[in-house]
Amino acid sequence: MRSNTKTQDKLLEIGKQEFLKNGFKSASLRKIVKEAGFTLGAFYGYYKDKEALFDGLVGEVAEDLFSTFRAAQNSHFNLIDCDKTIDTRELTMEYLKYFMNYIYDNFDEFKLLICCADGTKYENFIDDLVIIDVERTTEYYETLRKLGKVEGNVSQQLHHMLTSAYFTAVFETVAHDMPKEEAVSYIEQLALFFNNGWDSLIKFK
Q: Would you tell me which of 43, 50, 189, 202 could form a disulfide with 29, CB atoms 3.0–4.6 Å apart?
């Protein structure tokens, strides 16, 4: 967890509001600095540019999510050693609930990542998650197929399309400022819908 000075906290809070209101591209650095009561020179003592300020707001949660997401992907392979691959969908749902809690604990940061990041290195945030998921899941399916623990197949293109649709739908909760309780119910129904679809294509043994 980062430790900021009061000056940084002030810049970050005012910057967050400006980014949330106008998006990264249209956000005014001069306005942020002025409202914070500093000069541009003072700002550059903390951040090299506007994108560095944006990164200061979202970088930690984005990194944590990617790190935990990769660990979640890897944990599925543990099911093979325990001969519990039949529980794959259940494990996925458990992690989805964890991620939803994390997202809502850091809602403003994810709002920035999903809705306001155009023009930054985070502008393809959802696509980057999709790529990780498809690559690792494909490896998981191939491993199970060699062990005779899965039936069915999907093309790489279809796999990517379905995963992209799923992740986009999940983050609609953030895009539309959905209350957490409503979002949890929405996600459960969404997962049920997609899991039934996947079960018609890929069956675990």
A: 50
Instruction: State which amino acid sits at residue 67.
Output: S
Identify the domain containing residue 143 by its residue range. 58-204
Q: End-to-end distance of the chain based on CA atoms, in angstroms?
A: 42
What 3-state DSSP class applies to 22?
helix
- Asked if residue 68 is part of any domain, the answer here is yes
- The total number of structural domains in the chain stands at 1
Split at pLDDT 50, 70, 90, the class of 28 is very high
pLDDT digits (tens, 9 = 90+) for 127-170: 999 999 999 999 999 999 999 999 999 999 999 999 999 999 99
- Residue 121: partners with Cβ closer than 8 Å, 6 or more residues away: 51, 55
Give a yes or no: residue 4 inside a domain.
Answer: no
3-class SS of residue 175: helix
Is residue 67 assigned to a domain? yes
> pTM above 0.85?
yes
